[in-house]
Amino acid sequence: MATETKTVLDQETKDIIKATVPVLKEHGNAITTRFYQRLFETHPELKNIFNQTNQRKGDQPKALANTVYAAALHIDQLEEILPVVKQVAEKHRSLNIKAEHYPIVGENLLLAMKEVLGDAATDEIIQAWERAYGVIADVFISVEEEMYEEIGNRPGGWVDFRDFEVVKKEKESDVITSFYLRPADGGALASYQPGQYITVKAQMEGEPYNQLRQYSLSWAPGNEMYRISVKREDPINGYPAGKVSTYLHEEVEEGSILPISAPAGDFVLDQADSRPLILISGGVGLTPMMSMLETVIARQHQRDVTFIHAARNEHVHAMKERVEDITEMYTNVTAYTVYDQPSDESACDKVGHIEREWLKEILPTNNAAFYFCGPKGFMRACYQHLKSLGVAAGDIHYEVFGPSEDITA
Q1: Is the confidence at residue 127, as pLDDT, over 50?
Q2: 37 and 69: one domain?
Q3: Are 18 and 145 within one domain?
Q4: Does the annotation place 370 within a ligand binding site?
Q5: CA torsion 253→257→263→267, rounded to 10°?
Q6: Is residue 1 in some structural domain?
Q7: Residues labelled as active-site residues
Q8: How far apart are CA 378 and CA 384, in angstroms?
Q9: β-strand pairing of 162-171 with 197-202
Q10: 249 marked as part of a ligand binding site
Q11: Is 285 annotated as a binding residue?
Q12: Which terminus of the chain has fewer Cβ atoms in its 10 Å neighbourhood, N or C?
């Protein structure tokens, strides 16, 4: 992957940037929060791209603050942040963020830095960051250009949004519904890797801006359609109902058209690994796990799989019957269900939560590939359990929106 930049930073600039690392650690979230406020004040059309729910929750500013901090910390060797760059670039490509957006972001980020830091943000510091931002932006633009080129040249691939028809809508549980999507133009379907997602552009009546949301593809590649399985986000803890999930559940029907971007994401199953596979999910986090499970039974017939799913109860547990069918057909697949508040305790293998000692009892080995997905608190617990059971860091795979410390701390 290309990492060349158009400008080389001088040592003085690097020294200034590195000297600001402690300041960014302390004030980074305030800077990025103010940045997004400025951005949407000066360029409200960008609300068509950025998830406003993540803005309200503070996830988006925190994620950007983490990226800026990492870039400053590794300004001597920007290749060190390539994993972060690649993950963010996958998101950018799925949202169709282009090179022309970067100067707008840079201008507002520097102004936000100046506002938050006040006199501490001297002209020398701001000028150094202006030079550094140009170099960092070039890294992102270069990586994203390669991604756009690759997906545009892939058989069935496309850039920007493409209309898909909902050919089937299927209720999976009280809160999760699957949507089967086929290209409205009748053309080919781009391949994807299990674990990847698509971005849906919801154009809702009465809403001044488009709403973009990313949903994991929930079955194996190679089918004639895409499938996403969407949880209806009801009001909770002071947050309103999810606009897009409610729209999909209540207004989108078979025959409806949804614009989507091509599959993206770097949280993907390593199919070259033949060791035992452990898939752990909480709630709607089972969607990428289902894609991985379906892929293994189709392509890695001898690979041992342990599939663990946690849900509140049996009424919100999606695709349970499909997993049961798989375990009956394939002796190499073992499945466990954990319910926090079951209506019938006989409907699950464990009541409560996934706990370290229980994992120790049921896991065949810690020399395996572990993938997990779910709410942040769930993933934080999974990560800590696996680390305490001696699982190697390189065998622990997850995807989180925001700083990895949200899970690993």
Answers
A1: yes
A2: yes
A3: yes
A4: no
A5: -30
A6: no
A7: 102, 144
A8: 10
A9: unpaired
A10: no
A11: yes
A12: C
Distance CA 168, CA 178 (A): 8
Q: Per the confidence metrics, is the pTM higher than 0.90? A: yes
Q: For residue 45, what is the DSSP state? A: G
CATH number of the domain at 303, please. Answer: 3.40.50.80
User: Is pLDDT of 194 > 70?
Assistant: yes
What pLDDT does residue 310 have? 98
Which pLDDT score, from 0 to 100, does residue 4 have? 45
Long-range contacts of 187-192 (CB under 8 A, 24+ apart): 187/156, 188/155, 188/156, 189/156, 189/224, 189/225, 189/226, 190/151, 190/154, 190/155, 190/156, 190/157, 190/158, 190/262, 190/263, 191/154, 191/155, 191/156, 191/221, 191/222, 191/263, 192/217, 192/221, 192/263
- CATH code, domain with 146: 1.10.490.10
What is the three-class DSSP state of 39?
helix
Residues 367-388 have pLDDT tens digits of 999 999 999 999 999 999 999 9
Q: For 336-364, what is the mean pLDDT?
A: 97
Backbone φ and ψ of 268, nearest 5°: -135, 155
Q: Do residues 378 and 352 lie in contact, with contact meaning Cβ atoms separated by under 8 Å?
A: no
Can you tell me the distance from the alpha carbon of 104 to that of 109, in angstroms, rounded to the nearest whole number? 9
The domain that contains 173 carries what CATH number? 2.40.30.10
Is 133 annotated in a binding site? The answer is no
Concatenating the DSSP letter of every residue in 46-102 gives GGGTS-HHHHHHTHHHHHHHHHHHHHHHTTT-GGGGHHHHHHHHHHHHHHT--TTHH
Nearest Cα neighbor of 41 from 94, 102, 112 is 112
Choice among 77-86, 194-203, 295-304 with the minimum mean pLDDT: 77-86
111 and 42 both lie in a single domain = yes
Same domain as 303, residue 242: no
Same-domain pairing of 253 and 298: no
Residues of the domain holding 298: 277-408
Q: Has residue 95 been placed in a domain? A: yes
From 205, 231, 260, give the residue that closes a domain.
Answer: 260
Q: Is residue 230 a part of any domain in this protein?
A: yes
Return the DSSP state at 270.
Answer: -
User: Based on the domain organization, do 243 and 301 belong to the same domain?
Assistant: no
Sign of CA dihedral 111, 113, 116, 117: negative
Residue 19 and residue 142 share a domain: yes
Tell me whether residue 286 is annotated as binding: yes
Q: How many structural domains does the chain have?
A: 3
- Cβ-proximal residues to 252 (8 Å cutoff; 6+ apart), any chain: 166, 169, 179, 258
Least-confidence region, from 30-44, 53-67, 200-214, 256-270: 53-67
Q: Within a domain: residue 283?
A: yes
